[in-house]
Write the structure tokens for this entry.
Amino acid sequence: MTDVGRHPRIELMTLSEVADVQGYIGNFRVKVLRKARYVDEKECTACGDCIDICPVIKPNEFDLGLSTRRAIYQPFPQAVPAAFALNMEECLGNNPIACGKCLEKCEKECIDYDMQDEEVEIKVGTIIVATGMDVYDPTELDEFGYTRFENVITSLEFERLINSGGPTEGHLIRPTDWQLPKRVAFIQCIGSRSEKRGNPYCSNVCCMNTIKDSLLIKDHWPEVEIKVFYMDIRAFGKGFEDLYKRSKANGVMYIRGIPGDIREDPETKNLILLAEDSNSGKVVEHEADMVILSIGLIPSAENSLIRQLLTLSRTSDGFFMEAHPKLQPVDAPTKGVFFAGCAESPKDIKDSVTQASAAASRANILMSAGKFTVEAITSLINEELCKACGVCARVCPYHAIEFDKEKKLPARVIEASCAGCGTCGAECAFDAVIMRHFTDQQILGQVEAILEENPQDKVVVFACNWCSYAGADFAGISRLQYPSSIRIIRTMCSGRVDENFVLHAFKLGAPVVLVSGCHFADCHYINANRWTQKRVEKLWDKLEKKGIRPERLQLEWISAAEGLKFAKVMKEMEELRQGVTLEEIEYTRKEL
Amino acid sequence: MAIERSESDELRIGVFVCYCGLNISGTVDCEAVAEYAQGLKDVVAASTNRYTCSEPGQQEIKNDIKEHNLNRVVVASCSPRMHEPTFRVACQEAGLNPYLLEMVNLREHCSWVHIHEPEKATEKAKDMVRMGVSRARFLQPQIEKEVPVARSTMVIGGGIAGIQASLDLANAGYQVYLIEKKPSIGGVMAQIDKTFPTMDCSI
């Protein structure tokens, strides 16, 4: 940590948030909001004089509220930067009449109540997303009594209690009587591996964390009785099994079964756990002085903003989705962006460090090359056909199209900013946009090839490259079976699907057409799929007016992780197709 | 360097149907699909291969491009999300602009999802190849644009992962901006006492 603070090439911006990201691989322009610290970061020597005098006492977040801090504080002794920070919402001092004590006390005059937040713009070639994770709050699991019973704590709270820098200076005590607990119970998989409450996935680190905690207790207080209630112990990493064996050899009891209920003895404040040992099949009551809930990891609350700014996606567990789960595990689908640590999935320190070095290496490859070849999938304007109406510029999610309304000059695409969604191509009423590599001709060619023979037996599916097409790939990888009537046409974005593509398909006898794209928040082209929806809604009206059942045109949002949903939707499309009569198809052909 | 062909050139399309071991050929009659492709308009060569992505498989594409003077290539194998870069390079090495390649996803979108219907899957595969050929007719050579990459990076988050990535990149000589929301870096790791498997301090 201190290496970061003193590295000449690292500019550490604490109390900072990413406010906006523009640009593309190699050329990102980022706005960072640096919040005021109210203490001069460079001058403060962390002497502590201000703390002694500050009258405001607040719970210390770093110790999870198990200790207190002042309004001016250092989060923990090894903090980097070491400089103190002042929480202005808690401080009394912005009015010197009210307080202002720290200001007087600080000899170096580091404190400035008038410090302002500032917005800084930086230009970077690559971005590494290391937003980490949050921990699961077990309050909703009522049977374990967290927050109802004082002696039920979480594994993270335990870390603070056993830490020499923590509120008890490393002396293990239980909250009610501040005495060393004689009997400690750990309960595993809290908020993990549950379909009903919490999360369905394994949080990866909790088994080993408990094994480690049990050894820490045994090292200091061998007389403490420890029981670990578990579903499965997952000690799969290098050296992990040795630790597990050491824990058992030290007398830690591992009981296979999660307690269904915890009661508190009102007098002793001890806890009574009722659990079935699934190895023996017996239901047994256990008494413990303290219970530690081994809580799981959840995606960081920060992720939703970062996801929008960098147009990233999430897998079904809520963590960020990689470009490929096996072959590009640290690359984001957005080029030039990489993942490190728990942002991508729950992982321990070793794996986080490994992945961070991998992400750094991937970024290094790009930056040492100094240049990057962008796929030639960008749009062009046919100036002869352009009527300078400005629709393309209005719908472009990247503001990559310029046009001059006054002078009525043809629109112009800024190639480096164009991401290639093709929404401009779909919206242009004059066919003046050429979407390179996904031209009207190319796509209509596919539509015609599908419907050349027995059109009544086929379903035409437009699938966007990033989500729905990838979802279809995932259905394939998972061997999920669906009807063979489905014919898929790939576009980069569902926003590319021109009204004419759909109408042409119906004209050629397609019984059912499906347009599918990413879920709204997941669109790889910021919000291009909003235009998809508007267009499909317009088409529904149009079909209805012509006496064609609008249901024959379907719209679905299917993500890359939703192979199951893809297969299910395809079955529904086939059912729908079977309900379309030959007379209907004939009528449609004539009407269009 | 890629040879560019003008639009007026006669279309000469080559179709390469991949067995992917048994992944495709276990369900789809690949020989029948190749035979069907041979009969499509503008197709001058169609063949099958056990693994088109293998070195010999790619070599066959390159040889056929030269031998048959192909100006469009259709590879009917797996997802373009998987092997499009592979076959684009193969085309380029044989002097064909990489954007004159079209992929037909027989594996993920046909053989794997219609395992129990080999006949229907084979019919669908033919349709899919016809779609691919139809699109290939309209493919145009494209020139890719190079953009500069700035020698600086932003790391969002100052936990153990952000710290490690920042140090690696800074030590490699790049300017690093490490953005942390809290007053100090360290993240959750800093809150943990000892860490497994070494049982040493986290900070």
